[in-house]
């Protein structure tokens, strides 16, 4: 089984000296093999060279099996595989994308999924954007909501700023830290593309102090627009 081979491969590289601080950094929510990011990246190159990629059809079951493992690196390693297969995505893949967002949820996985997986999916299938983001916001699951806020990270001039504005209006009163921080991050990122729009938006909409502070960080480094 592909997932078992991956687990065995990573388990052989376990480093308990690094596992404990990595676990503490994630507030003791997850177990770790203790494989730090640069080493994991190189290790996955070696693993894929020997084992190749699973088929696209195997991906949903691989993801669920990897998410059932306690070691956080199993989820990180799966992202490497997903990134190499995502060009083959179909509309039905939204099911496992949502699964990865709502299971073992924390910022370290959700932020990668929102930008690199959900963001890719919704750019590939723009006709899905409205009802997917609406469903995520209405779910009241903070990680789905955060994903709706963040999925356009990296879209730059392809950002639908009216949609971004509407999503922020729909979520800005939520008191959760990750929602408010996410709003600020999305606006801060878009400010690289259109600082004037962001500046006007944050001074028109009533945002939380955290969202506002995060949103204008990049604008303050340059001349503030008038």
Topology:
Elements: H1 2-11, H2 16-25, H3 37-51, H4 59-68, H5 72-85, H6 94-102, H7 107-124, H8 129-139, H9 142-150, H10 161-171, H11 177-191, H12 195-202, H13 209-215, H14 217-220
What does this structure look like?
The protein is mostly helical and 226 residues long. The protein has helices at 2-11, 16-25, 37-51, 59-68, 72-85, 94-102, 107-124, 129-139, 142-150, 161-171, 177-191, 195-202, 209-215, 217-220. The chain is globular, with a radius of gyration of 19 Å. The relative contact order is 0.08. The mean pLDDT is 96.
- Secondary structure tally, helices: 14
What is the helix content?
Answer: 55-70%
Whole-angstrom Rg: 19 Å
Secondary-structure element order, N to C: HHHHHHHHHHHHHH
How would the global form be characterised? globular
Which structural category do the helix and sheet elements fall into? mainly alpha
Which range does the strand content fall in?
Answer: under 5%
Low-pLDDT segments, ≥5 res: none
Q: Name the average pLDDT.
A: 96
Number of strands: 0
Ends distance: 60 Å
**Most strands sheet:** none
Pick out its properties.
mainly alpha, 0% strand, globular
Question: Concise description?
Answer:
The chain is mostly helical and 226 residues long. It has helices spanning 2-11, 16-25, 37-51, 59-68, 72-85, 94-102, 107-124, 129-139, 142-150, 161-171, 177-191, 195-202, 209-215, 217-220. It contains 14 helices and no strands.
